[in-house]
Every structure is written in C-alpha cells, then in structure tokens.
Amino acid sequence: MESLVRLIDLPANIQVYLVIDIVIALLLLLVIRLLSGLPKDISVSQELGEKDNFAFGISLSGRMLALCLVLSAVVGRHIGLGFEYAALSTTIFGIIGIILIKVGRFGHDKLVLHLVNKEDAIQARNTSVALVDASSAIAFAIIIYSMINWVEGTDSNAIVGILSGFVVVMAIMLLTTRLYEIRFARNNQNDSFQGMLRKDNFALAIQHSGNLIATAIVVSIAGSILQYQANTYVSNLTGWLFCGVAASVTYTVIVSLAKRIVLYGINWKEEVDLQGNVGLACIEWVLSVGIALIALGLM
C-alpha cells in the first residue's frame, strides 16, 4: 500500500488543530449571519426561508465566503505552537476579518456606490446590487488574505500592516469604480452606471463584479514582490499603494485588449450596458478574473 500511496509527514496533533479551526470558523459564520440582520432589524430566517429573497441570500453568501477566505489565510500558521495560541490567533484574525469586511462594505456603500441605497435595494430583491455587494466583500477578503500571508506573526505590527492593505484596496476600488463610471457614461450618452444598478441590470452587475474581484487579485500581487518590514508603516502603505495602482492600470489595459480580441465582431459594451446580455457579461467576468489569476500565477 505504501508503494501506491505516498503521504507527506503531517504535523503532530493536526486533527486537534483542525477541529479548533472548524469550530471557530462555524461560530464566526454564525456571527456573520446574526450581524446581517442588524442594520434594520431584519429577520434572516424570514428573508431566506419565507420571503425567498434571493438578493439577501447573494449578499449574505458573499460575506460568508469573504470570512472563509480570511480564515483560510490564518489556519496553518499556528500548528505546533499550542492549542490555546491556535484558538486565540484564529479568533483574533477572524474578528478582525469580520470588522474589516463590515467596514469595507460600509465604505463601499458611502464612497464607491454612494448613489445606491444598498440595504433598501437588497430588501426590494435587487439582485444586481446584491451581487456587487457580495463581490466587494470578496474583493476585500482577497486583499486581507494576501496581507495576512505577507505579514509575519500576529502582533500589533502585523495588524497595522493588514489595516494598511485595507486602506489601499479601498482607495483602488474607489478609483476603479470612478473610471468605470466615466467609461460607462461616455459610451452610453451620459447614462449613470449606478442608476443602471438601481434598475437591476444583472448583466452589468456581473461585469462589474468581475472587475472588483480581478482588481483585488492583481493588487494582491504586491504581497509577492514587496518585502515586509514590521516597523516601516509608511513605506508599507506607499509600497502597496504604488504596486496596487501600477498593477491595476496594467491589468485594465490587458483586459481591454483581451476583450477586443476574444469578442471581436460583437458590440459587447452595448450588449451588456443597454441590452442586459448576461451571457456576454459572464464571458467578460471570466476574462477579467482569468487574466488576473494568470498574472497572480506568474508572481
């Protein structure tokens, strides 16, 4: 049997660490569910089970996946350091992840999609706004995941480093969305991108969700090329900002070229922006995220 299946040597007591991480993850996912009903005293059970509100489910699932992404960067860092340290580390980073995802969504609502009342739109079953909301949470989690893997340890310097990455991704998402709005208005006789989301243009939401997630992926590449220095807070922040902006601009040019090559002969802007062509939007999503993953693999 050993000649057919060769396993690597696993750390001692890995089963115990696995149980600790799963239990804490389930508790934190429960916290995410409970917090999702707080803004307007919404009953999660009613929204999902009685009203069958798909938009609410999409939004909540995005936050849950975001938390799992953050926790996936934490587990494994503490194996062999003791059960108490493992539980404390996972809990601390999990709570930080929940807070940053919550703050990130709030900032995304007030700064990036400031013309959309997200909570009201989701309660009104607007799946487009819900998809963008879920994608923004996932995008923040991707950056937090990268930052956790970039920093060393779980001390205050590591937490400051993660907060720096959070500020960077907020700035880049704001810049990306504003440029996207300018492009949309130029191609659609000054029509409003956020207005189309309010009208529940699901194809446009799919396209934009790909932009958000792909931008987060390419920004996370900075963690592969920047050297972590615990006490140099300013250089850490500026380094992530410079690399993030450079990566975003380069990515935008490449994706624009890729769409013109792959979708030649199709007016993909009009099809998605005005006609709500979900099929083309899905292809654009794949091109955006796929190219970002290729760039990540190169680094």
Model description:
Helix 1 packs parallel to helix 4. This protein is mainly α. The chain has 13 helices and no strands. The chain has one domain (14-298).
- Biggest sheet overview: none
Estimated share of beta-strand residues: under 5%
Query: Cα distance, first to last residue?
Result: 37 Å
| Succession of helices and strands | HHHHHHHHHHHHH
Q: Which outline best applies?
A: globular
How many extended strands?
Answer: 0
Enumerate the spans where pLDDT stays under 50 for 5 or more consecutive residues.
none
Structural class: mainly alpha
Mean pLDDT across all amino acids:
79
Helix amount, in percent?
over 70%
Q: What is the domain tally? A: 1
Radius of gyration: 20 Å
**DSSP summary: helix tally:** 13
Helix and strand arrangement:
Layout (H helix, E strand, L loop, with lengths): L13 H22 L8 H7 L3 H21 L8 H30 L5 H6 L3 H24 L5 H32 L5 H6 L3 H19 L1 H4 L7 H30 L5 H6 L4 H21 L1
Helix pairs in contact: 1-3, 1-4, 3-4, 3-6, 4-6, 4-7, 6-7, 6-9, 7-9, 7-11, 9-11, 9-13, 11-13
Quick structural summary:
The chain is mainly α. The chain has one domain (14-298). The protein contains 13 helices and no strands.
Which structural traits does this protein have?
single chain, 299 residues, mainly alpha, 13 helices, 76% helix, 0% strand
